[in-house]
Amino acid sequence: MSEKKKVEGDLRLDQVSKTFGDFVAVDDLSLVIPKGSFFALLGPSGCGKTTTLRMIAGLEEPSSGKILIGDTDITEAKAHERPVNTVFQNYALFPHLTIFENVAFGLRRRGIKDVNEAVEKVLNLVELAHLKNRKPGQLSGGQQQRIALARAVVNRPALLLLDEPLGALDLKLRRQMQIELKWIQTEVGITFVHVTHDQEEAMTMADTIAVMNNGRIEQMGSPADLYENPRTVFVANFLGQSNFIDGEVEASDGENLVVSLKGSKIALPKSRNNAKSSSLKLGIRPEKFRLHTADEKLTGNFLEGGVITDISFFGVSTQYLVEMPWKQELMVFEQNDGGAPDLEKGDAVTLSWEPQFTFALDGDAK
Amino acid sequence: MSIAHTSSSEKVFAPAKKSHRTAYLLLAPGLVWLLIFFAFPLLNLAETSTKTPAPSFETGEFVQTFRFANFIDAFSANQEQFFRSFFYALCATVLALAISYPLAYAIAFRSGVWKNFMLVMVIAPFFTSFLLRTLAWKQILGAEGPVVSVLQFLRILPADATITATAFSVIMGLTYNFLPFMTLPIYASLDRIDYRLLEASGDLYANSATTFRKVTLPLSMPGVVAGTLLTFIPASGDYINAQLLGSPDNFMIGNVINSRFFRVVDYPTAASLSFILMASILVLIVIYIRRAGTDELV
Amino acid sequence: MKHWLSKNLIRIYAAAAIFYILLPILYTVAFSFNDADKRNIVWQGFTLSAWLNPCEPIGICEALGNSFKVGITATIASTILGTMIAFALGRYNFRGRATTNLLIFLPMATPEVVLGASLLSMFINIQIGAGLVPVIIAHIMFCISFVVVTVKARVASLDPKLEEAARDLYANEWETFRRVTFPLVAPGIAAAALLAFALSFDDFIITNFNSGTLNTFPEYVWTASLRGVPPQANVIGTLMFVIALAIVFAGQVISKRRQTRR
């Protein structure tokens, strides 16, 4: 691989697999990450997202498949030959070097003699220039995290990989770092690949999210797309919460389908239907439901006969658990803006929602 | 890095052989040294143990006759020293354990800012010649030393009795020599115990004695095993303490082996005795480890 | 009062135990100032003459010199060989691991009498006999295991993510070792070297078997113990003790400093 030619472009994974003995960690994965985007690999522990990241970094060899940046095939390049840098989960700062030397490490290994300017610049970017002579052991978690980022960014890699970098930080700091990371990414323009199990984090920061499960990508798209129109039960439940009610398609009515839902007839826009058969799992997010007292007259999609079994106050919203006549408990979030009626445990309610917020999956989907 | 191609749909990378080669290159010099200067001499000793004196009866000349009876002869002639060695070693081990465990406990849990200092003090004996230390004990326990004077003053000891040249002083010397070997592994085990386990035990209605018995003690067993082995094994083969602090009545098997090598030039007997000693130690190690269940030896 | 006693009983005990451990050392130090020529058993008066004439007794400084010759050579060789093995065990997965572990463990489990006797026996058989070189060879042999155990502990505690980070930041294998691995393992190697030197310097049994006419310091003390150990031996013992203590404390100060700002 030529060192002189600058390697850049979209990141492409071509049918990449990784097996450890009998265990398939990554299963025939193919995807394209456009240059300059903020991409998130989201999934639960053990889904293969970290393994994928490590293969991109060169710290793990794929069992099969190809990895390319632009036109350059980097599959066989060693970690230190790739224009890729990683921000590790526990930062992996070199304890025996000062902050300055930590950040300068990559530059020095590439033979760059005059590192002062670049290091100072990136330390200013993370606002920690005053700590440059300290050792990592003397820094707080948040500070270490910013230094780990600086150490990677200073090398202007084609790709920056982040392995759950915010996991060890407390909530407030995490929120702050999420905003900062996003800002730095747009400032610096490098492609970020961010691995996380925190769906809120992924949705806030990423342009594109790929949800992984059992070594495969279940669905990939923009945060809004994934959230509002999940294609599998797993994605629907991993991003936010969902209520799933079983129903049957009865008829077609122009742009909508008429679905029989536990005795009521509701409208499902055809564009929101991802099911192949006529037996459906209808998905409605808790915040899309509206609560009404039982005596209100309603039109459109609604379900009657619910009884409130639990109320939890979340500050911003209130969560209601509503038991329906068919013995299913549905979850409803109402924003605390005075729009919902004053309700108590045991009250009878009707649930309504806008048809375009429904999504439908196959009745036997997992 | 070699790459093995199967079909285009399943390209597989062979595990980097280079790393295995590096491992063997790193191991080779040291292991070869140990093979030549540890393993081979032992085999050589085994070979010597079945020799008999040469027909010429020249001192130091032996011929290989595969006389396995050498072992029986050597053992029966020195039974007394064998059993004495294991007895002394056992006493020393038990005493060392009794002295070291509370010390290790104190350093691990009750030492506060003094921890490092105390650890250094425990290793301090390593820093002086152990011969000098043992000779110091000979002095301290000797006829002109303070211990005897005090004991005689307190009428515990009769007027002309001595402590040195007895089994007691030999065992005392052995115990003292191996205190660091017993204390440090126990300390290491105790130090590794998460104090929250002890808090949890208290939370679950155990008083401190029960916590110690049910939580601390079992968790410190690896250290106890290591310390016991590191004490018993060298102690059983020692001869310095017996020579300096004891009399010929207290001689251990190490003394016999030594004299058979240098004084009475009888290599086959010395070799046989060495092997019987080694074999018994190995048997004891295996039994002990099987029961106590530690397998991280190195 | 009873509560205070039960809480502090173990501390009192520890202090007593440490006094007991230090007692012979204090004796050795004290009697280096004794005004006695050979029979340094009874206190006869304070004098600095032993300290001022450390090499007066015949053979003592020669023995000391031999101890250093053997000790330094054995330390260097065993530290290098042992460190290499420790890295192999700690970083690589290879076949023959169990055998290697056994071969490392056995010398530590073999009584010194057997080690010394078997080596002498072999050296006699191959016509090398006894002397300086056999002693050095023997010392290297028994020190390797201790070096391996010490360094391996340090290698095992090294976060492999640090080496991955180095590779991620463009360091090839050699640079990773030189800039990250080695500096972090160095304290363990230093400790192993010190341990090896201490073991070698203080060794008697194996040395006695293989040294022949050569004398090391422990051998000098042994022979002298029959007729009377001169105070100069105590002087040397005291010096070694003080130097070793100084090194250990210095090491602790250095490691504290490494953790904080430069």
From TrEMBL, chain C:
Gene Ontology CC terms, in alphabetical order: plasma membrane
Leader sequence segment: none
Gene3D superfamilies assigned to the protein according to its UniProt record, in alphabetical order: MetI-like (1.10.3720.10)
Stored InterPro entries: Bact_Polyamine_Transport, MetI-like, MetI-like_sf
Pfam families the UniProt entry points to: BPD_transp_1 (PF00528)
Biological-process GO terms, alphabetical: transmembrane transport
Alphabetical UniProt keywords: Cell membrane, Membrane, Transmembrane, Transmembrane helix, Transport
Superkingdom to which the source organism belongs: Bacteria
Main subcellular location: membrane
Membrane topology annotation: Multi-pass membrane protein
Transmembrane segments: 12-33, 72-90, 102-124, 130-151, 180-201, 235-254
Entry's family note: Belongs to the binding-protein-dependent transport system permease family. CysTW subfamily.
Protein name (Swiss-Prot/TrEMBL): ABC transporter permease
Annotated organism of origin: Actinobacteria bacterium BACL2 MAG-121001-bin67
